[in-house]
Design brief:
This protein is mainly α. It contains 3 helices and no strands.
Amino acid sequence: MPKKSYSEQISQSKLLVEAMKNNASSLPSKLTGDFIEKMNSKLQEAIETNTVQERLKADLKTQTAKLDELTKEINKAYAEAKKRIKLDFPQERWKEFGFEDKK
């Protein structure tokens, strides 16, 4: 069975905490108000952390797109420079520019 997503776990935990609060008087003795509050506190922290994580994921996608665009531009400039150098310099000097080409 696949692992539940963070949002599914958070949603189910919210439901559980609310139900425990509403039924506190009939819960087993180990599920005290202190237990419910600790769980609720951890749940709130998880919600905040999940929000931060989602923002970071969005930022990462933005940065990846920017890097992809820059890499395309660099590759285009590299190809143009390599072409010009190979036309204007003798083959013996190509290695100086980092080209291992034979032709």
